[in-house]
Each structure stands twice: as structure tokens, then as C-alpha cells.
Design goal:
Length: 367
Amino acid sequence: MNINLADVDTPALLLDIDKMERNIEGIASFAKEAGVAVRPHIKTHKSIEIAKRQIESGAIGLTVAKVGEAEVMVDGGITDILIAYPLVAKKKLERVRTLMKKAVITVAIDSIEQAKILQDFFTEKNSLNVMIKVNSGLNRVGVEPNEEVLELAKYIDELSALKLTGIFTHAGHSYAAKSEIEIDKIAKEEADAVLKSAELCEAAGIKITTRSIGSTPTFKKAGLVEGITEIRPGNAVFYDMVQVGLGVATIEQCALTVMASVVSKKADRIVIDAGSKTLALDQGAHGNASIAGHGFVKEHSEFVIERLSEEHGVIPISGETDIKLNDRLTIIPNHVCVVANLFNHYLIHRNGKVIERWKVDARGRVN
């Protein structure tokens, strides 16, 4: 392909390959300097091509949220995957057992009840790797980093069908931080939750090999804490306006954009062909309040995409503007993870030209 960006039909999902590759290299360089492994979360991009580039840059494997995402990545040739989600349904466990014939699969665990279900399904001969998820403040899933984690670890240690390989957490509440000081605090608590849990287990004679943290806002901070062995950033492959608002990334680091066209102009507003089915309605995960509107318009930073319906984006205007019908606007999404999942393909571009088209392979794999 060799198409001018100006000739692309809209709305379109654009990926600046040079920016993405710099982001991937930035994660790899940090990991090398910090002495930690990288297991990036692919829920952000859902792309086999991008996953392979992350592996080529030094990632030891991938993190996914769903069995369906794991299936897509294993079919794409990835052989080491953490499913960072507490699986309990028999149908999903059957699919995991099939995946284990092709790849090393590890599943998140956060309760004795779940451990019983997994023990009844798997066998000593065909044992399942598990990692305990601990709660570091997000208050979603995960055991507490106290006697609760030790109780679960002791229980797993006595089971024949489960092999405990590590402890991990996700400080997703860092997305709601209001300052760098608050991000620093959350990152310390994130690392402490994992390390304290590992200490309790090892004091009881239970070896904890992997001590893993995630979250794009915190990985460069928690990843420096001595004893942490692995980082799992997802959003950092692209970055977005939430990360810019947090001070974690700059506009120039944002690799993923949506190109939209002006389809209507009125006295007090313009309308673009990108609505909620393109930009999503997410204005900041976990309570982030650092952004305005539904994305950042690169050509007109003064514009605020104030309102979305399914196929329309409404931008209020006042006074004179030189905007006219068919003008193109390039928008950095608030939250790239949900936006990528709305498209079938990325248009890969460099120097104003679309050079390739990559499939969003795991789009819609919600189970």
C-alpha cells in the first residue's frame, strides 16, 4: 500500500508505526536497565503483528484478559501467556486445556473457591500454572496482601493439579491520580503489595518465582523497586489522552489516532463522522478527570468534542472559523484500548503515507 493520508476514507484508525516502535523500544530499554522481564498486556492493541514486535523487542510472553484473546495469540504463534483473569466456568477451562497443548498458559487465581474448581478440572499429570492476584488498591479482584494471600498460597501448595508460579497485581486506580506524587504513592503501594505477599509466602516455605506489577502510569516506578521481577504495561504501546493528562506521556508519543471528516457546519457547531462507535464514550478509566471532551483534536487544540451520538461527534464553535466540509481532523483518543476494539483494521502510516493494513485480530473476543 502507498496511499496518501489525505485520501483515506473516514473514520479511520491510524497507527504511526515509528511512534509505536519507539514506545515499544522505550519499554524494552527501561526493563533492561531495571533488570525486569516484560509481559505486555495485549488488551490495548489485540494485534498479532504488534504482539510479535513486542516479543522481538525482548518480551518474555504476553498478558491477556480473556481466553479468546489467548486463543488468537496462540494461533498467531505466541507460546507463553498469562490470562490475568479469574476463570471459573467449565467451558473456558476446557479451552484453556486445549491451549496448554500449544503454549505455556498461566491463569490468575484469587480465591480458595476458584482453586477448588481448578483442582477438580485439571490433573497432576496435566497441571495448570497459576499466579495469585493481590489487591493493591483498585478493589476489583485479588486477595489482600496479608494473611489472606498466605492462606490461599498454602491451599494451592497442597493441590496436585495447580502449580503456583508467582504473585501479581494491577494498580489500575493510578489512572485516577491527580498528581505525580500520587502516582509515586500508588506505585510504591503496588510494589509493596506484591513483595509483602511474596515475603509471607516464602517465610512459610512457598517459593514465589515471579513478582509482577502492571499499569502504564506506574510501571517505570514500581518496576524499579528491588524484588519486582516483571512488568506488564498495556497502554504504553500507544499512549493516549489519559496518559497525557497524567503526565506519563506527551502528545508526540501518542501513536494511535482516529481520522475523522467534517460532515456538517452550523453557526454554533461542527459535526464530524466519528461518534461513540468510533471514539467510544470512555472519558477516563477508573475516575480520571484530567481530560476534556471525547479526544484531542491535533489540528485544532481549542476544539472540544463535547458530545457523541453513535455516528456523530459534535464540536461547539463560536465566531469565525475556516473549517469547511470534508476537512480532516486527527483525534487522539481518550482511551485507546476501547477505541482499537471498535475497528477491524489499523492503517499503518509513515511520513504521510499509509504503507500497510493490520488486522485487529482479537477484536470482540470478550469471552
